[in-house]
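Input/output pair, single chain:
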Amino acid sequence: MENRRILESWKEISAHLRRNVRTCQRWESEMGLPVHRLDGTPKARVYAYTDELDRWFEEKLGHGEAKFNNREFGRKEDLKGFTKPKKLFVPAAGLLVLVVIAILLWHPSPHKPGVSSGKASLAVLPFENYSGDSSLEN
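Output:
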């Protein structure tokens, strides 16, 4: 038996096919990408042989990269490799604005009202002795 190179994770499989992980997982479920699982369950660790992946790629997608432009084989973004999370831009920008506003509101101002010139002061308040104990007077 020949020496076959084994890819042991979705990350290695996607790097070999030059696609992102989600595309490879979609190809497994929709188009029969030859991926094996250790115990056969859907949540088990995956592995694949490079020669099987190359053969599958040529059979399914062998007419070149132009086939990716139609919706049958995948999205056009898949040609670029990993897609950027564009959906997170608006929430991230909103969070940044909130952080800037919070910093501006909580930033200590140079003139605090009610603060003395730095000299120590002591306040003496009169209290009434309700306990009846004369030793606690004054």
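Helices lie at 10-17, 21-31, 50-61, 89-106. The mean pLDDT is 77.
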